Amino acid sequence: MNAAAPGKVILLGEHAVVYGQPALAAALTRSVGVSLEEGPAARLVLPDGMPTPEEILDGVVRIARAAGRRRGFVARVRSEIPLGGGLGSSAALGVALARAFCLDEGRACAPEEAERLALHLERVLHGAPSGVDPAICARGGVILFERPDLLTQGVPHPRPTASLAEGSDIPASRARIAPVRAPPFWLVVALTGLARGTRTTVLPLRDRRASEPRLYDPLLQRLGALTLLCRDALVQADVASVGACFDEAHALLQQLGVSCAELDDVVGKLKAAGAPGAKLTGAGGGGAAIAIARDEAQALALARSVPDAFVERVVP
Ligand code: MEV
Predict the structure, then answer these.
(1) Ligand 1 touching residue 18 (CB < 6 A)
(2) CB 182 within 8 A of CB 143
(3) Stretch 107-131: mean pLDDT
């Protein structure tokens, strides 16, 4: 049984979404695929002979069980995006596995179910996921994603909710998810080549924010406001305003402490090459950056200005 799911970029609102602010996410045309075979035990084969960490296998077994699988299996993974590179590889893998296990049990897998099952893997890898990554990987297009339950009386919640705590069952999503209807647009996705776990930025930020909420909360709230401005600019095909939102968001993410020298360097190069706006995407600390472009020609030129990048035409 074969199944696949797209990778993703967060256009705006990463990290802030963990505290109840809205985020904008877009699916990539590049995907993660799984082929499922019968096997005596549970086995996950990652590309290029990469070892499978115990915790990842544990998340995969949870997805299998939740999908109704009672037999052993071998799941072989192929990926068009770098694993751990900030482009949603773990969420895409979770969604692809959910689809493969459900199809193998003879039933379809609706986006809501794929998203819920994929959270088993997100939870072991991310520590405190908002759920935005599996939501976009399961739905495709561009979405506005929000978890209002993570806001406590207008103040961002400092801890993962019980629903996302280790060991608990994963209930139906509490997210508000709306597709964004906008004209297609051009993005450049630039890779730093630094793999990192989302935990390595989400959990330290949680601690920093808990000790200095007066410093961090206004930054998180401004990111939420920028997300809505960016959504409106995309709908109006206003590339200059999208770019301004990206630039301000990157500065805010730097202040939150989730950027790094490699990301700042890539963003600086994209800006110097004329990008209307550029920012880190996803958890930060490595991974990838994105730039908005006016058209395909500019996107291709921007991609040539950094060591490792590809161009995406995003179709909401
Ligand atoms: C990662 O793609 C997005 C973060 O906001 C984490 C999350 O929402 O789960 C950094």
Answers:
(1) yes
(2) no
(3) 89
Residue 207's Cβ-count burial label (10 Å; 0-12, 13-18, 19+) is exposed
pLDDT value of position 41: 95
Ligand 1 center–CA 27 separation, angstroms: 14
pLDDT tens digit sequence for 70-101: 999 999 999 999 988 899 999 999 999 999 99
Q: What is the pLDDT of residue 162?
A: 37
Question: How many whole angstroms from 18 Cα to the centroid of ligand 1?
Answer: 7
Q: Check if 298 has its Cβ closer than 6 Å to any atom of ligand 1.
A: no
Largest interatomic CA distance in the chain: 56
Claim: this prediction has a pTM higher than 0.90: yes
Q: Which residue's C-alpha comes closest to atom 8 of ligand 1?
A: 130
Tell which atom from ligand 1 comes closest to the C-alpha of 129: 9
Atom of ligand 1 nearest to the CA of 281: 2
Q: Are the beta carbons of 269 and 306 closer than 8 angstroms?
A: yes
CA of 155 to the centre of ligand 1 (A): 18
Q: Between 228 and 175, where is the model more confident? A: 228
pLDDT (0 to 100) of residue 136: 97
Q: How far is the CA of 126 from the centre of ligand 1 (A)?
A: 8
The phi and psi torsions of 27 (rounded to 5 degrees) equal: -80, 145
Cβ–Cβ < 8 Å for 123, 164: yes
Do 219 and 205 form a contact (C-beta atoms < 8 A)? no
CB 198 within 8 A of CB 83: no
Look at residues 25, 6, 3 and name the one whose alpha carbon lies nearest to residue 14: 25
